[in-house]
User: Fold these one by one.
Assistant:
Number 1:
Amino acid sequence: MERYLAWQENPQDDFDFIELVLADSLSVCGILKFRVRRISPKTFFGDGQVRRVEEAGLALKPDIIATNAQLSPVHQRNLEDRWKVDVLTRADVIFDIFAKNAVTAEGKLQVELARLTYILPRLTGIGKELTDPGGDVGTRGGPGEKLTALTKDQIRRRIRLLENRIEHTRQVRELRRKKRKKAGLFNVSLIGYTNSGKSSLLNALTKSKVQVDDRYFTTLDPTARVAYVDSGNPVVIKDTVGFLNNLPEELLSAFRATMEELEETNLFLLVVDASRENVDFRIASVIQILEQFSLSEIPRIIVFNKVDLIDDPRHLNLLSEKYPNSVFVSARRGDGLGKLFEIVKSKSRSPSSKEKPAVIRADR
């Protein structure tokens, strides 16, 4: 039975994939974009498209070919045979980035669990050599036992062990959440599409020096800092892992314990890079993930970030019209942060408020 693919142009998806490749420390030597109407059972792409990539590979001599297509294990192996190089899917690239950027023990456990859960059904024996997640780098090399040398039973046992460790961590987190809730602290969480400027805003609000980098998924592990919205009134502000449209389901499942940490949030600051295209799409993607984790009812303020990169004021006017009740701030210059603190202070006095979300616009 032939499989057909409904084509839907999504520039954000293309942009995300290129940014992911760059965040994985890969250099781009060429880009080919195809419209696939009928999925080939052997190679996903049509014969002519496969030949075009093959010809481009002979000219450019890449070490790796990365594709945004949703390849099956059979597709991936067959394309590697044709193109004579490793072929990475979007999921492979994302797992590699997460493996490199995970810092805490819990983050590393979550990434390893997600990656093994993803690899298990795709592992068919001797083939592409993948290293154990305990290695120093991601999916393409480094020290560690070869996954192709492991049996599926060994991987399943490792998955169960990781699940037990993460469950233990989740229980510890739950106890800590109860203590914080008993202390009565108001909790603010920064959420948003990856690379939207959440860490920059955290630094501006709390006078911190959290690492900031203009790449996707620089921050994976939650970072909490205390700010004082007025004299003697502390508020906990937490930076979280960035969201992305169409994240691998295995990652979302593995990071469920981290997402549960957001349940104690009294107020979300949904940070959006206003200088990018597809602002609406990015906001909708974040809200969709919130709904997936039953977090969409928590009050939120949309923070439009990096407006210093916007020269046309009409763009900003359109955003303020589309998202009313907006407040404009500059995280980099400090403009409007006082007003933002006033909003947070107001919310902290009535954390159960069901008002419609306000909108804040911020610079990087």
Number 2:
Amino acid sequence: MVDPAGMRYGMHAVLYVSANAAEDLWWCLVMKLETLAVPKGYRFSRRSFVRIASAASAVGLVHITTEVDLAYGQRRIARDIPADAVLINANENPLGPCAEACSAMDNLGAKGGRYEFGLTQELVKTFAEIEGLKPEYVRAYAGSSEPLHYAVLAFTSPEKSLVMGDPAYEAPMRAASYSKARVFKVPLAKNYAHDVKAMVGADPNAGLLYICNPNNPTGTTTTREDIEYALVNKPKGSTLLIDEAYIHFSDAKPVLDLAAADKEVVVLRTFSKIYGMAGLRCGFAIARPDLLARLEPYGWNSMPVTAVVAGTASLKHKGLVLERKKINADIRNDLFSWLAADKYSFVPSESNCFMVDVKRPGKQFIEAMEAKKVYIGRVWPAWPTHVRVTVGTGPEMEVFKKAFKEAMETPALAVQGPPKGAESWRTDRPYASLS
């Protein structure tokens, strides 16, 4: 039988849908239609319902991979993190939520005991008005990780592949393992943008093309013209998934208007980055209603009310994005000047992270930095001697400079296997090649 709690909260259990359970779930869906983003003219049939019920049961087996999973999963041995450690490994914003967001959460008080669906509606309405969108084109989620996974599950299959850059954010590839889709990883172009011409030609049966703009981990951008080229030339029936988690840090042109124009595009936004709300979990999927409807079977959770009011307050703070963009850029550019002066090799970034070549196995360098209480980001298999670094505060980056220079001046060790006592869950995962 299908357990709604299992579907909703991702309990790891083997699920199946019997005829009676399907009938019950059918009526449950019918009763909940007012909460689903179902476009006009869309009709549910028993056939479409079986598809939805199967998808809903499958999602109970899916682990939603987030940046924090990847950031801390790289550590082969569990150690307590020192209180004075510098954490620049998970693309978090050290500034945290703005004062207005914190005040909104403080004032929420006892309302935390209610689901308060109206607060989510206000968040969506506020965002839609600011961006010139219709509210039905916006769906709020607890961060952008959920709709990212749901989009992969909805638009890929054993017959419909996922196409993505390399290196790029790994979560879509992990989600594709659940839909049993083939994954085509296309190396970035020479300017570190997504090579859209190679991507659209990677597989004529592609179901989803993923573009993270700016890209995680390189922090580099793909032009609006290239994204439009991908939209026009992509395989027939495929969809573009444009992840704009880091868009506010850069001068890249957003593509929300393409979703508003009913193109085959799903755009992701999050409050985790420039708004400093990674721990609060709040984000959006933006697309035309029929595309959003394809994500619906995979999750119907209510939003955390603290995140919702913090998000609304952040959106209403008109100068916040520009203020934080400048803070990040000033610290980042100072760091790049220092790296260039010492002739270290790095990829110029427009985001809050960048890749630097440490001229040795990246994992070894990560451990050397950790010994100095500086926690940096992970390694991508395509670039084994590069590590990702998140831009922290000014004082944090001064500590990073000192530790980085010391580590770079220390001779590299011979490559060794995992140390004794390494935790099996960190080394025996089915995707162990992903750092």
Number 3:
Amino acid sequence: MRRVPQTRQATRTRRLPGRWLAAALIAGTLALLAPGVSYATASQSGPAAGGCKGITPAVFPARGFIANPARTQGGHLWWRRSADGTSVCIGTVVEWVRYTTTATKTWKVIVYSARHPGGQVVARTTFTLVRGWYFWSFGVHQAYSGLSAVCLTADESFGIPCIAFGPLRAS
């Protein structure tokens, strides 16, 4: 029997993401203020070895149906720049989607980088869901050289919010 992936409906976990993001922001701030904590948090082997983990939170703007119930964000992710400044590790990416009626949509995380300037879908899943607010976590955990943006979509008609990354140093 094939197991169908389930997304979490926002009405059941409405308070968890806000608290989770607040905890991440506090931990990130403390990591910046205490070098020892920063080293302990980010001292895993390089971003490409053993899967990378982001430590800095970033928020996608709400766009169209890509939005949380408060319309304060379309999702969020955790990232970190490599020590030499040539690549960016993208950790977990969380996407919020509002369904106004039962529909089937393919949720995607798209990365724009030097290697893929036209965009590369790095995570996707398809859901048929009833009316409501939903979110899903994508474990990307990859480093991208020349990263310019990370975007979300649940089919283009639902909106495409992006987080832009500044220029990276040449290798």
Number 4:
Amino acid sequence: MPRARDRILANLESVYREAYERANAAGDHVRMADLDAAYQREQLLLEVLLDIRDALAAPGEAKPEQGPGPLAALETIRRITKLR
């Protein structure tokens, strides 16, 4: 069973928040800015990956107990990349 999107994003936020608070306590403003930018970038990438995961598990493509087949997964990836 895949983990819930909210739980994954909350874990990402927790990791970055701890590092950000340590940098703030040390007065390292450059590190704080770097962490903020890295968090936003990783959050966006993670959301894209979660969207792909959700698209691959879309109902109707495969039986839920089997999961999406390799050909269906490749077709979904092909469709996603054509949108670019």
